[in-house]
Amino acid sequence: MTAPDAAARATVRPARRGDLARVWELLNGLAEYERWTEYVTGTREELGDALFGAAPAAECIVAESAGAIVGYAIVYPTFSSFRVRRMLWLEDLFVVAEARGTGAGRLLLAAVARRALERGCFRVDWLVLDWNEQAIGFYRRMGATPTAAGATQLGLTRDALERIVAETPA
Known about the structure:
- By secondary structure, this protein is α+β, with helices and mostly antiparallel strands.
- The chain is built from six helices and five strands; from the N terminus they run αβααβββαβαα.
- The chain has helices at 3-9, 20-34, 44-52, 104-118, 133-141, 158-167; strands at residues 11-14, 59-65, 68-80, 85-95, 121-125.
- The N and C termini lie far apart (62 Å).
C-alpha cells in the first residue's frame, strides 16, 4: 500500500468507549516513543471515565485505516485571558510508525482544527519535545508556529499544590 492509497482510505471519527483498549495502547506507545513512560500513572479505566464518563474532561478522535485504529488525538478546551477567547489544547496526537506519512496525522490535526473552529476557538496549542524533529517538521508543514518566544512552561505537581495550600492561609 502506498502512502497516497493509505491516506485515501484513512478516516477519522470521534472515539467510542469500545475504542478505549486501543487508545490506551497507543497512549502507552506515545509515552514509550517520547521516553516518558514513568509519567503514565493513570489507568485505562480512568482514561475511559475522563473521555466517556458523565462529565468528560477531554475528547478523543481516532484515525482508522483498513479497519484498524492507527492514531489518536486528545483535546480539551482552555481559554486565553489576554485574548478573551476560547482555545483548544492538543494533549496528544500520535500515529503508529507504520502509518506515519500516510496522511493519518494530517486527518487528525484537521479534525482538531475543525472542532476548534466549530467551537469558536481562535487557536489550538500544544507542546512538542525539542528532540522530536519529525513531529516538529510535520506541525510546521501544517502551518504551526511557536506560540511564546521567551516563555518557559512550568507546572505544579500534586505535592506542590498540597504544600502551597498547607503553607498559605485561606
